[in-house]
């Protein structure tokens, strides 16, 4: 077994310990001169991020070429994903002062340009991969824009290349705040009893939700946030939460 084959063999073994079916979700691995290329479609964002971490952890690997995609929740054309993102970004109050542009092939369509813009979001989609370019007013704006792109049903990956207009120091508190904002904005999630703690870019989620689906949703939302390196999901499922929500709805 030569050096390259040894690296890809160990990488494949590491992926096999992540819990998803490598027969259903095969990953093509190639190693050359310190670069490990990982290509394939995985079941969710957690699988993608953990697969990249396992590949990067091999001592011979200096860089991982990320060609991993996430299985979309709904099949959509690039044009449909772009239209969805246009509507989402234009309706999100956080970006009311930002210019919003969409790139379709060689054409650049401007959908909003305030008199005194604070940031400019430029969005393009290629085979389900969303690319965000331009400038955001703050790190929290950049992070929220990236998550909104991940939430688009046909999205397979997001490349968040937004620059921050006023450079600011990133830290664990900034990441925790961003995760809380995202959890609270997710319409599929009741985040009222979820706590967030971040240490060295590793997020821990604790608290209670009404279902296993909401537990997974909260974890995926945390993974979507730019700068998060790991997510430890300690959220518990409680029928008491579900009962309390039903009583609140019935009383309203």
TrEMBL record:
Residues 171-239 form the BON domain. Pfam families: BON. InterPro entries: BON_dom, Lipoprotein_DolP. This is BON domain-containing protein.
